[in-house]
Design goal:
The chain has 7 helices and no strands. It has 247 residues and is mostly helical. Keywords: Cell junction, Cell membrane, Cytoplasm, Disulfide bond, Glycoprotein, Membrane, Transmembrane, Transmembrane helix.
């Protein structure tokens, strides 16, 4: 699943290399495609018209995504890292992007891409003597480890953290030591359990069986040469004979 998601992410970055788009646009596009395929299948079932091509296309795309993700894992990871670094650079430019980064860092308990030093690439958190920002040499509050007895959110907890000495094992005191890329990869690798693999294999087997069934229906000879005109719109009455059982 990680490889598949990274492939999709890489393709999106290649086509539109920007973070100004609303993330909801991707959901709208995917949802529209699924709705189109579903509604075509519904009309096909009403008309007894099998959609063999659609099923085969979906299966081929799934296989292709897995193969591409396996062969180009390093390239996909590199592109993903660049995209995450670009997100850090634009942290304060977009409120939605800022909220998304804060959510990821709090959810996965991470800071930056590789480590907290990545935040020096942002103009507000750049650690230099010429930076007039109050957040210079700091990190966002979402990088901070929240205390158990803390009731009020301290949005200034990351100030000056880049100036602190980096310990090899524990990182900087008060902030998450690991980068988000490492944490996300670890989380994604942990998700596909044995049950998930069985589910994916079962889904692929179901798709193949449906494709074979549709193919058999297409190749089956027609038992009747003539049909009622009503059966064109109402296939359920196709085998109904007015001459039989006529009292």
């Amino acid at each position: 699943w990680l490889q598949f998601r990274c492939v999709c992410l890489c393709v999106c970055v290649y086509v539109v290399d920007t973070l100004t788009l609303d993330p909801a646009l991707l959901l709208i596009v995917v949802g529209s495609m699924m709705f189109l395929i579903t509604i075509l299948g519904c009309f096909g079932a009403l008309r007894n018209a099998p959609f063999f091509g659609d099923l085969l296309t979906v299966l081929v795309l799934q296989i292709a995504a897995g193969v591409v993700g396996y062969l180009f894992t390093d390239m996909v990871m590199e592109r993903t890292e660049k995209l995450m670094m670009k997100a850090i650079v634009r942290y304060r430019e977009d409120q939605d992007l800022e909220n998304a980064i804060d959510f990821i860092q709090k959810k996965f308990q991470c800071c930056g891409v590789e480590n907290f030093k990545d935040w020096s690439n942002n103009v507000y958190f750049e650690c230099s003597d010429t930076n007039p920002s109050l957040e210079a040499c700091g990190v966002p509050f979402s990088c901070c480890v929240r205390q158990q007895n803390q009731t009020v959110l301290n949005t200034m907890c990351g100030y000056g953290k880049q100036r602190q000495k980096l310990e090899a094992r524990y990182g900087v005191q008060g902030i998450f030591p690991s980068g988000c890329l490492e944490k996300i990869v670890w989380w994604a690798k942990k998700q596909p359990s044995a049950g998930g693999r069985v589910l994916m294999i079962s889904l692929a087997a179901a798709q193949i069986s449906w494709i074979k069934k549709v193919q058999r229906q297409q190749n089956a000879p027609k038992s009747r040469k003539t049909e009622r005109k009503d059966s064109y719109w109402y296939p359920a009455f196709k085998d109904f004979n007015d001459d039989e059982n006529n009292l």
